[in-house]
Amino acid sequence: MPEISTVIITHNNEKNIERCLASVKPVSEEIIVVDSYSTDATPEICKKHPEVKFYQKELTSAGDQKNYGISKTSNDYIFSIDADEELSPGLLNHLVVNREQFTKFAYTFRTLNHIGSEPIEHGLWYPNERIRLFRKDKGLWETGVLRERVLPEPGVKPVKIPLHINRYEFSTIQEFRRDSEEYARWWAEHKLEAGEKAGALSAIFRATLTFLRSFFIKLAFLDGITGVQVSVQHTRETYLKYKALRLQHKHG
Predict the structure, then answer these.
(1) CATH superfamily of 4-170
(2) Best CA proximity match to 31, nearest among 61, 64, 75
């Protein structure tokens, strides 16, 4: 397989970036970090690693940051990972042992979210399969302001690898709650700008569907009390998104 350039985006990730860098070094011939002008120790930590090529760019969207990082790479294959993530031991071993077999245009891996150190293996967060490894001439990151994804060229069918990347975005359920409240407001603003509307009962209807899917179909309760809390928060986020869209359209 050709050599790999790993692209990492960061913003105030001093607690996580060292772990992320350590996990990708064994499979990366080049590591590009694009930092959104962190005010903590993230830049200093990155600059301690001579193999890291460190850049800073004003944040517009996550997709823009990742595409900027790709523009700085010198290899054909891109591995994309965020600073609060790491390769699981199983995925790292698979990439090392089977390196020569990775010759397709794009590969998806699963994402295993954590609340603190507790994995959330059910509910809406898992398996969350996403393209992470791809040829840069066959796809780029979507540049919209909402949650991003790789858009492969037409006809490119990703190969699914059922191994996961660990994600440590939230230390507590309270952090997830605050983030989802902010995301709901942000989501509603951008949906309103796009001309979308929400009916009077949209918030209740969609929140109910979210809970049924998360709790009963995706079995969130199997992750114990934390899984239940995550499921409830996903339901609440859905309710807040459509309630905010309804109110903003009504008073816009």
Answers:
(1) Spore Coat Polysaccharide Biosynthesis Protein SpsA; Chain A (3.90.550.10)
(2) 75
